[in-house]
């Protein structure tokens, strides 16, 4: 695999173990990106705060899931992917993250076979790709990567605490990200240090296989600017306003739509004061009334209670 390069974009990966992070200070220390732990058995207690802080500081952000040893089958792997996806949704959804979603798979205390480890990893990765529409990435280290086969179509984040390049393995001939230090041993930042401002204690150090510009070109959000629309004339605006007023007019002259007949009749019989029209006109009140009717909420006692609360 390729070697390190001093021009490569520098980043970190963090979890609750780093405590509260001063993300603006991190951003001023030469760090361009951050992978943030989202889940293991449950959501990481600092995940949401870390995502918010890193995004606000202008860093490119990714999220990772640590595959727990309790995951021993493909069904459990898919369930773990669902937990991970729920955390992504809680943070703001897949579109909030620029960097790939990551499966961190590095432990086998259950002594599972290589075939099972590969199947579990594949099930998780495929489920995340299905849920997010984004190709995820695998994180592991050289002594563990030999457990996987047939997964090299997924990008690789390799962990090796050294400046010596990892060797090709299990179908991978290159890495997209390299975790070269845990903040205590291994390689150093281009400035020769392992300390990152804004973080108390050690933190994992990583680099992307390219410059910051390369990183943003590959993973940055690409938006196509909309063509400027000509301003509407006063006459056009007045026409739109008139049409809107007509749509919202509660004159009651239009015939009652068939779909709302039973609900409106029942509502009037029960004394629903909000019914001021039988017009269709896509009036939200009719739809709400129909739903109330369908689930049996047009009950005099319930309506009386609602009026009391309103008063």
TrEMBL record:
Signal peptide stretch: none
GO MF term set: lysozyme activity
Pfam families assigned: Glyco_hydro_25 (PF01183)
Keyword Hydrolase: yes
InterPro entries: GH, Glyco_hydro_25, Glyco_hydro_fam25_subgr
Entries under PROSITE patterns matching the protein: GLYCOSYL_HYDROL_F25_2
GO BP annotations, alphabetical order: carbohydrate catabolic process; cell wall macromolecule catabolic process; peptidoglycan catabolic process
Keyword Hydrolase: yes
Top-level taxon of origin: Bacteria
Keywords for this protein: Glycosidase, Hydrolase
Gene3D superfamilies: Glycosidases
Family: Belongs to the glycosyl hydrolase 25 family.
Stored PANTHER family: LYSOZYME (PTHR34135:SF2)
Protein name as annotated: Lysozyme
Species in which this protein is naturally found: Paenibacillus azoreducens
Lineage: Bacteria, Bacillati, Bacillota, Bacilli, Bacillales
